[in-house]
User: Which sequence fits this backbone?
């Protein structure tokens, strides 16, 4: 069963790229006392994620933040090095790029998927959620191949 609106984000430690390399960051640090838009992609540098999903949030970052959002975060079952490099390549300075290297957070949310058929192992499903002070207020999970329910435009409509 996956996380739903009204549920609290589970405790986890993720990774982000800092000036000195990968840095741990907890879900408490990310979500407590803040309004956060979190979106997940199956993999950094993959076509749909690089051409559509992340760019939509980069282009709309100011508009999203103007609606009272403190942080926009992107997460993937990739390491912090990959997420940092992908963020730089996409000019995603306004987006907190998070690595869920082992997929533990995706599993804790009930939103992992088996992508071994594509040679990618266990990954996160594509989703976007709005989280207010650690509680999910909106969740949109896309079917395989889709980017409708988790797009920046859809998130904007929910804010």
Assistant:
């Amino acid at each position: 069963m996956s996380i739903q609106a009204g549920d609290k984000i589970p405790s986890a430690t993720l990774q982000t790229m800092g000036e000195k390399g990968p840095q741990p960051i907890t879900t408490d640090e990310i979500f407590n006392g803040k309004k956060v838009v979190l979106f997940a992609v199956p993999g950094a540098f993959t076509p749909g994620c690089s051409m559509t999903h992340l760019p939509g949030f980069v282009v709309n970052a100011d508009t999203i933040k103007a609606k009272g959002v403190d942080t926009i975060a992107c997460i993937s079952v990739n390491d912090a090095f990959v997420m940092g490099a992908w963020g730089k390549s996409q000019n995603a300075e306004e987006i907190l790029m998070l690595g869920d290297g082992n997929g533990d957070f995706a599993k804790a949310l009930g939103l992992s998927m088996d992508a071994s058929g594509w040679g990618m192992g266990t990954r996160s499903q594509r989703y976007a959620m709005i989280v207010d002070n650690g509680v999910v207020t909106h969740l949109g999970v896309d079917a395989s191949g889709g980017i409708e329910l988790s797009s920046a435009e859809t998130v904007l409509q929910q804010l």
The chain has a mean pLDDT of 91. The longest helix spans residues 47-66. Residues 41 and 92 are 14 Å apart (CA to CA). The beta strands are 13-18, 21-26, 35-41, 71-76, 95-99, 112-114, 122-124, 127-132, 135-141.
